[in-house]
Specification:
By secondary structure, the chain is of the alpha+beta class. The chain is built from four helices and seven strands; from the N terminus they run βααβββαβαββ. Helices cover 30% and strands 36% of the residues.
Length: 148
Amino acid sequence: MLLRSYRPSDLETLYQIDRACFPPAVSYSRQELSEFITDQKSETWVADEDGKIVGFLVADRRRALVIHIITIDVVAEWRRRGVGTLLMDAAETAARGQGSRLVYLETSAQNVPAQRFYLQRGYEKYKVISRYYGNGDAAWVMVKYLDK
């Protein structure tokens, strides 16, 4: 599996993957996703298996020492096969390389498998935000302090 940077030709595929991974009130519009990806402070990693995109992660630098994982999406049939781990490893390695001390993300309070994945990676539940998503679901803000 190859991890590579985003290419503009990837946008439609990433948009379709995001729509498949999350319900309509949670997934991003094509425009929102494009804006997140193309923001100067953002970086996007694409997991590519033999020319097929099987997952991606978008992160941005919020402050000098803080990175925000905007979204991590893995195609359903590729879950539990290490794709999410590769994507998160890439984002956290880049964050360390930029001198960041903290990575944070939001995940649905109802998405227990995602919470377990992040907890196993050293993230901690920081706080719940009620009605965070468009469908009314709450989100956990989860944080990880990076060592040098």
